[in-house]
Structures are given as structure tokens and as C-alpha cells.
Amino acid sequence: MKDDTDSSAQPTLWGEAPEPRATGARSRGAARPHRAAAEAGELWTVEEVADYLGVPKQTVYCWRTSGYGPAGFRVGKHVRWRASTVIAWTLELERQG
């Protein structure tokens, strides 16, 4: 009889469930993989912006208060950045060289 389980799964200690594989669904607080293009209208959190730019979250917040960096906006009490804006900002920095 054929076993349908994933043979590449690593055994776990103390009966812990294995980490789920990335399937495209995003869990809250999980880092998003870098990609060249963002979905239209997709909003990023400070963690996602910091991860994409390779800087600490505090740097993104400092940039925001000083007027530097990609433009973010408030959604209620949360700050969000449009993914396309962050990517366009980095491309402009690269162009300016």
C-alpha cells in the first residue's frame, strides 16, 4: 500500500507538530518572502517593510517621523505601506545611485 505522507518531513521531538510548509497562505506575523512585484493594492505592515528593506522596524518608524522613506498611512491605529509604493521607492533610490 502506498504511503501518502511526505517522506521529506523531519521527525520532531516530544510529539511536536512539524512546521507547516509555505503554501501561499500567510499567517499573522509571518515574514513574507521577498518578491520582485507586489499584488496591486497589497498593504504591508512595519515588519514586512523592514524585512523587505533589510532594516530594523525602528528604522522604518524613524524614517516615517522624519519624512524619509516610503510613504505610509494610518488604517485606524495601524500604519500600513502599499507594497507598490515601497518597491517604487527602492527603485528610485537605485536609479539615483
UniProtKB/TrEMBL annotation:
Matches recorded under InterPro entries: DNA-bd_dom_put_sf, HTH_17, SinI_DNA-bd
Coiled coil: none
SUPFAM superfamilies to which the protein is assigned, alphabetical: Putative DNA-binding domain
Domain Helix-turn-helix: 45-89
Superkingdom, natural source: Bacteria
Disordered: region residues: 1-38
This protein's name: Helix-turn-helix transcriptional regulator
